[in-house]
Amino acid sequence: MAFERSARRTKPIPLTPLIDVVFLLIVFFMLSTTFIKIEAFEISFAGGDKEAAKPASKERVTRIDLGGRGRIFFNGEVVDSAGFEQRIDQQIREKPAMPFLVRAGERVPVQRLVDALDTIHRLGGRNVAVDRWDEGERAAAEAKADEHDTADPLPEFEDLLEQ
Fold it and tell me: The domain 60-149: what is its CATH number?
């Protein structure tokens, strides 16, 4: 006995429920996504106009110079990283509107400059300018710091060297 097969009719897939589900998924992911607030601060480069870049007096700007061998000069005095943060915090509490001028020598890694800028911003400094530290002035400051630097650069390793 031979059975005749009837031709299959394919039913079309309804698109309206599919579109509804897609829109519901889009809305769900849009609402559940965490929006990231990117913190940034504006930097003015003081090197553009040399006359405008120079402050009228040293009292009107806080100078931060990044020298070789990891040295940080805060208004001409050598400070370590902890002292740098304390000085910045103190300066912002005393004179919050005073601008900061961060200068870096030619051979200073960019990461050190970014770290200094980040520290200033994190502690509340908002008026920051960046400039290149003149090589002659940098060399004079480094030489002066070398004269006064009598501490051993690596005192924590002395006991290891003796063994």
Answer: 3.30.420.270
